[in-house]
From TrEMBL:
CDD domains per UniProt: NAT_SF (cd04301)
GO function terms (MF aspect): acyltransferase activity, transferring groups other than amino-acyl groups
Family matches, as PROSITE patterns: GNAT (PS51186)
Pfam families, alphabetized: Acetyltransf_3
Gene3D superfamilies in the cross-refs: 3.40.630.30
Lineage: Bacteria, Bacillati, Actinomycetota, Actinomycetes, Micrococcales
Top-rank lineage group of the source organism: Bacteria
Keywords tagged on the record: Transferase
InterPro entries in the record: Acyl_CoA_acyltransferase (IPR016181), GNAT_dom (IPR000182)
Name listed for the protein in its UniProt record: GCN5-related N-acetyltransferase
Length: 182
């Protein structure tokens, strides 16, 4: 399937491009973002460039660059991956650059991707995990309509310690109910 562009009120989600590498490199250098997303791996500049260049043809996933309407600046990424067509489910991941957190871009990005997942791909379930230390993200997901399913103890590293992962999901009928109430 060709990688779509999704248009919202404030943002445009477009496919990744090779020239996104500079912004992705900056985003990966953010220690707060790495901690809140459980990112412990380190990447070379060459790996980031190759990864950005490969997103357009990556199978079984949709990687979107979050940009604002009227500007092509890379604000963050939202990914629908681990797509299982037989079970009709996928995983969702969001990461925003520090300057663009808390401005509503992530909320709109999630809503656009959920519409694409349920209406465009015909999925039944979208799931994610959020670190227990990331109360702001957990609250965001709950406000959108995701439900907590469980907790995986010590699932991520947090410096020298550990951090639980909170598993969350939204089902197709729950998504439809949130759309009717808006």
């Amino acid at each position: 399937m060709e990688k779509p562009t999704l248009q919202g009120e404030m943002i445009v989600l477009r496919p990744f491009r090779p020239d996104d590498a500079d912004a992705v490199w900056d985003m990966l250098a953010d220690p707060v973002g790495a901690r809140l997303t459980g990112t412990t791996a380190t990447f070379s500049r060459e790996q980031v460039e190759a990864w950005c260049a490969s997103r357009a043809t990556a199978e079984g996933r949709f990687d979107f660059a979050v940009t604002t309407t009227g500007s092509d600046e890379f604000l963050g990424e939202i990914v629908l991956n681990d797509i299982d067509e037989a079970v009709r489910k996928a995983n969702l991941r969001l990461a925003m650059r520090p300057a663009y957190r808390g401005r509503g871009y992530g909320t709109e990005a999630i809503e656009l991707v959920l519409g694409f997942a349920f209406d465009g791909l015909g999925l039944h379930r979208v799931e994610l995990d959020v670190l227990a230390i990331n109360a702001r993200a957990k609250s965001l997901y709950e406000n959108i309509g995701f439900r907590v399913e469980g907790r995986r103890r010590d699932a991520y590293r947090d410096g020298d310690g550990w951090c639980d992962a909170i598993d969350m999901s939204m089902l197709e009928d729950e998504y439809r109910a949130t759309q009717l109430s808006r």
